[in-house]
Design brief:
heterodimer; A: seven-stranded mixed beta sheet; about 0% helix; B: about 110 residues; mainly beta; four-stranded antiparallel beta sheet; globular
Chain lengths: ~130, ~110
């Protein structure tokens, strides 16, 4: 069974740090980009970051740049999110998600289109930043 | 960043109704558009990818259409299990962005 299980959430004071983990199973973890997505209480979804299969490319939403670091350990089938300088507005449920890809050939020219989505999600881990 | 705007923000419908949710991107995103369903306390679930492709295991009453800046999610005959919040999401460029969500409630 394809599965993602997050851990590491909790209560932390403003300015503090936390490291989230996501354990993957049931698929070849090293073959996929992976993302973190968060959802503040009563709010919508916000994509936070993603990382390439080998860790060589990482992308972040502006609000976490310089404070959060996404990383992975393919030998351990694990994804991580190191969160530093935490703020009250970082309070949210954090989801780990697999970036699925569909490759579609163009009608002409030999090009290929790469369509990404988030096709597998964990149940989430809750981070609360409060004094 | 690309902004995604959904309408309506909420709607009330009855079982059996045809429901349409729209999503507009602030710039052209070709067909790089996904739709998710989320129920309270649960993780999102992928319904539609690449604007119109049905994810495996998703009932055929769900369909997606559109390209460029305007997209639509349609539920052809609303079922009790479909009362949830729906989000569109663009994967054209990072940062990936979501619409604000559309809550589908029971009339």
């Amino acid at each position: 069974e394809v599965q993602l299980v997050e851990s590491g959430g909790g209560l932390v004071q403003p300015g503090g740090s936390l490291r989230l983990s996501c354990a993957a199973s049931g698929f070849t973890f090293s073959s996929y980009w992976m993302s973190w997505v968060r959802q503040a209480p009563g709010k919508g979804l916000e994509w936070v970051a993603n990382i390439k299969q080998d860790g060589s490319e990482k992308y972040y939403v502006d609000s976490v740049k310089g404070r959060f670091t996404i990383s992975r350990d393919n030998a351990k089938n694990s994804l991580y999110l190191q969160m530093n300088s935490l703020r009250a507005e970082d309070t949210a449920v954090y989801y780990c998600a697999r970036d699925g890809i569909v490759v579609v050939p163009a009608a002409l020219g030999g090009r290929y289109y790469h369509y990404y989505d988030m096709d597998v999600w964990g149940k989430g881990t809750t981070v609360t930043v409060s004094s | 960043d690309i902004q995604m705007t959904q309408s309506p923000s909420s709607l009330s419908a009855s079982v059996g109704d045809r429901v349409t949710i729209t999503c507009r991107a602030s710039q052209s995103i070709s067909s790089y558009l996904n739709w998710y369903q989320q129920k309270p306390g649960k993780a999102p679930n992928l319904l539609i990818y690449a604007a119109s492709s049905l994810q495996s295991g998703v009932p055929s009453r769900f369909s997606g259409s559109g390209s460029g800046t305007d997209f639509t999610l349609t539920i052809s005959s609303l079922q009790p299990a479909d009362f949830a919040t729906y989000y569109c999401q663009q994967s054209y460029s990072t940062p990936w962005t979501f619409g604000q969500g559309t809550k589908v409630e029971i009339k």
